[in-house]
Amino acid sequence: MSSLAWIDFDEAERQRAQRIMALFQERESRDELGLGSIRDSIADHLFPGTSTIQTRLRYMLFVPWLYQSLEQRGGTPSQLKAEARTLEVRLVEALKNGGEIRGIIGREAGVKLQRLPSSVYWAGLGAWGIRLFPGSIESYFTGLLRRRTRHTQDEAVTSAEAISSQRLWAKALPPAPPKLLDSTTFHLTNDEAGFIVDRLISEQPNSLLTHLAQYRIEAECDYIWEHPQRSDFPGKAQNLVKQADRFSAVMHGASLLYNLQLSELREHDGWVSFYQQRIADWADGINHKNIQDWAPDDFWKTVEHPAHNIRPATRRFVVQWLEQVALGAGRISASASARSLVKERERRLKSSQSRFSNRAVRDRWTGASGADRLSFRWSQAKSHLRDLAYAG
After folding, report:
1. pLDDT at residue 223, rounded to an integer
2. Burial of 137 (0-12, 13-18, 19+ CB in 10 A)
């Protein structure tokens, strides 16, 4: 029996709430029309363990290294948590001392840092099999106290059993570099990169992220469907990327129409002209054959993911928008039915906080919200792949 009794029934909800709060701080990621469950389902298939607030790949090692250093210390869970925070704040200075400029979590906040790297990477560490226990950060510290108490009281536990029951991190985790908290960088060694790739192969063998990581493939493109080696992707990944491209392209029009209508309500001529032009450009780029060939039932089966529930109302909205686009993308901005579809969708989602219904909320709108194409966390995956490619 494990010496850690992980009891944290609300961990999934806690992590989901953190993701939602993060989205509200990223203007381009705002989910005004309730497409987040589809977006995240696709992203978790393609790039599992990533999130929009991750920065650099070596944090996947920094966090377990720092936490390992606490596992032999005494103290209450609250004391250990405070020590962990101190270590993570020290890491900020160590990265600065190492000459890093971009990607440092807490570079400006310093000791006032609110979102620690551990909270940003915790779910990813579990998804990649680097973190072996299932609990939250809070239950981790409680578990350390329980483990020490049990092994102090139970002298019958053999050395082998103790080692097995204490396994909190992957066995092959590379050792922390000396003087980690004095000066360090985001540069991965070959051993560290190999460990991460091995974890992906073991835990996420079918993901596109694993395929790209395994062969150290990196590319500078804005979207995964623009990848120069797309034709070499595994078959399932190619199909998912195709579906992601089509969904992103089609639903981008709904987001633009949402922003156009708010611009009109705000009577801001510059914004109105901007979104009218963007919708015209979007309509010109729509592949009508793709729309005709799109089978929604196949799409829902392809993107289905156990961690995300795509509600019937969301599916209906997507299908109804697809029908509007099929009638003619060029007429969308002037279409009363398309405008009403978008407006009513946002009203149902936000109720009294709808920008269409609540003028005070609308007046705080700054001219752009969810106005970019969905990219399904390719930016974060691309950064991680670049770090792997330059390891050594």
Report:
1. 98
2. middle
- The answer to whether 322 and 330 are in contact (CB under 8 A) is no
How many residues belong to the chain? 392
> Nearest to residue 346, comparing CAs of 333, 355, 338?
355
CA 339/CA 320 separation, integer angstroms? 12
Q: How far apart are alpha carbons 140 and 145 in whole angstroms?
A: 9
Q: Are 198 and 121 in contact (CB under 8 A)?
A: no
* Number of Cα atoms under 13 Å in the Cβ half of residue 63: 26
Q: Are 145 and 77 in contact (CB under 8 A)?
A: yes
Helix/strand/coil for 169:
strand
Structure tokens of 341? Answer: 């579809």
Torsion angle (degrees, nearest 10) of CA 336, 289, 309, 240: -150
The two three-digit tokens of residue 318, written as one number: 């997507």
Cα gap 126→199, rounded to integer Å? 10
At 169, phi and psi to the nearest 5?
Answer: -130, 160
CA distances from 263 to 180, 363, 366 (A): 50, 10, 9
Say how far apart CA 370 and CA 317 lie, in whole Å.
17
CA dist 174 and 351 (Å) reads 50
322-368 pLDDT, tens digit per residue, is 999 999 999 999 999 999 999 999 999 999 999 999 999 999 999 99
- pLDDT for 29 equals 53
| 124-137 pLDDT, tens digit each | 999 999 999 889 99
- The token pair at 172 is 């092959």
Is the CB of residue 316 less than 8 Å from the CB of residue 33?
no
CB atoms within 10 A of CB 251: 22
Secondary structure (3-state) at 371: coil
**3-state secondary structure string, 75-135?**
CCHHHHHHHHHHHHHHHHHHHHHCCCCCCCCCCCCHHHCCCCHHHHHHHHHHHCCCECCCC
Q: Tokens at residue 80, please?
A: 């250990």
Give the number of other Cβ atoms within 10 Å of residue 25's Cβ: 11
219: left (phi over 0), alpha (psi -120 to 50) or beta: beta
Sign of CA dihedral 193, 244, 304, 295: negative
Q: In whole angstroms, what is the distance from residue 272 CA to residue 103 CA?
A: 35
For residues 344 and 313, the answer to whether their CB atoms sit within 8 Å is no
